[in-house]
Amino acid sequence: MAETVLRKVVADRGLGDRVIVESAGTGGWHAGGPMDERALRVLAEHGYDGADHSARQFTRDWFDRYDLVLAMDRDNQAFLRRMAPAGVEVRLFRSFDPAAPDGAEVPDPYYGGDEGFVEVLALVEAAAEGVADHIADEIG
Question: Would you say 84 and 69 are in contact if contact means Cβ atoms under 8 Å apart?
């Protein structure tokens, strides 16, 4: 969901031709598969198109290809930090939401119903604006 939302926010700001937005899980359980049907439905209900999404697994070489690596929760952040080369920062996605408390996470809605995906979408939308602000500042 975050990739779809952030890609749209970046494009809406006219940065789509300068910024690549990718997402991947730390595990390969769903690699190659489509987005969860509940996530697709909630995104569509809110004007987003996630139909082209394909799950992938994050690998160490992503640190060489991307300037900003974000994690949805502290467990994944810790995993990515252990994998990261020295000096590479891995931030929590919600750290870009000025209304979020320090250390705020995006919960995993997988084991719940649609309401969890609606909640995650709202959290992602709020943080995506801050991520886009950060990117715009970084690239000028």
Answer: yes
- Report how many domains make up the chain: 1
Per-residue pLDDT for the chain (140 aa), expressed as one digit of tens each?
999 999 999 999 999 999 999 999 888 667 768 899 999 999 999 999 999 888 899 999 999 999 999 999 999 999 999 999 998 999 999 999 999 999 999 999 999 888 999 999 999 999 999 999 999 999 98
Which helix (H) or strand (E) segment is 68 a member of? none
Check which CATH number belongs to the domain holding 105 and give it: 3.40.50.2300
Q: Which domain covers residue 121, as residue numbers?
A: 2-139
Read off the tokens for 96. 């870009």
**How many Cβ atoms sit within 10 Å of the Cβ of residue 110?**
12
Measured between alpha carbons, how far is 15 from 100 in angstroms, rounded to an integer?
25
- Which residues, at least 6 apart from 101, have a Cβ–Cβ distance to it below 8 Å? none
